[in-house]
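Q: Convert this sequence to structure tokens.
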Amino acid sequence: MKTHDQLMDIYHKVRRLTEDLCRTLTAEDSLLQAMPDVSPPKWHLAHTSWFFERFFLRTGPGQRPAFDPAYDHLFNSYYESAGSFHPRAQRGLLSRPGLDAIFDYRHWVDAQVLEVWQDYGDAQHGELRASEILEIGLNHEQQHQELLLTDIKYNFFAQVLQPSLRPERILPPDTPVPLLWDPLPEGVHTIGYQGKGFAFDNEKPAHRAYINPVALANRLSTNAEYRRFIQDGGYQRAELWLSEGWQWIRTEKLEHPLYWKRDARDAWSQFTLHGWENLRDHEPVCHLSYFEADAFARWQGARLPSESEWEVRAQREPLSGHFLDFESLHPLSAREGESQIFGDVWEWTSSSYAPYPAYRPLNGTLGEYNGKFMVNQYVLRGGSCATPGHHIRPSYRNFFPTTARWQFAGVRLAKDLP
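A:
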């Protein structure tokens, strides 16, 4: 249990980091929305503040009036029980309020949150206590910090000048690590959140899962390995693809991962948040859809792990990796003895995003946070180079549709054992 002062200290650090990620953006950059699945940076800045206003300041004791009643509609994301919301695909049309007004809104929310917390402490706010709402809000904002980076990357890639968000990065050695197989202990294991701190409702309850004989790769799959898949006709071989995936890549005319390009000399480069870089052989391949990850695994004579298998493997590892804290906004090459189980890229699993046995969503409006999305999506695990390091845990479940490519998503192979 965090103390009164600890929680408020974390609050201010999280809120400052969100603004720091946007420090080099112009007002024009902050309005970009290059496709419906990404949101403008300005909208992320406002929505994360709306979350605290709507679920903390307007509930419980010391209720505050709305900063601007119009913001309830403009910056609600998908909470049906909280009222109407602006269409997601049209967030890039919100030229007003301006960027300066959004920062004014953020700072007003921060001042009001501090005042309410100091005056009323951990009071009841509807279905939850004040500290519980603050922790949900902070974890929600950390999710949007990652989305800010992935959305800015896509927006900048789609922009004619293709600018960088951060200066050119200092690159560590790009050395190979042999692909080895790490067997898991067969039998019944417990997965799901088992601690006493914060976790989202979709990580609960802890429950038992049977693991058949299986081994997981000791590291993430690399650019060099994926390039060999391309050279072997991976995007032209229907037998490697799920039917829906095959139709999708044919319709979209896909031939390589998002952000890759090949020049006339057959040399590959990739677009990053640090600008264009030569493709590095031993960095983890990323920005793959579920369909691409699955086809690549088949080509390797392997498969994607289930989320239960992944979590059993992750329970043996310390919570460390290349996260947002490293300020290399791109995955890094593995080093000898480094599993990459956390950080670098989110790892696609073969598990559909579904409720755990006896799952119960939160009561009230915040019950819409996770449960209603448990259909037509697949689970990813482990966090990425854009994930705040204190945000991840072995039980954390991310989820995206099968065609999502703009996230830092990659592959860890699994293979069944006799």
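The CA atoms of residues 290 and 402 lie 5 Å apart.
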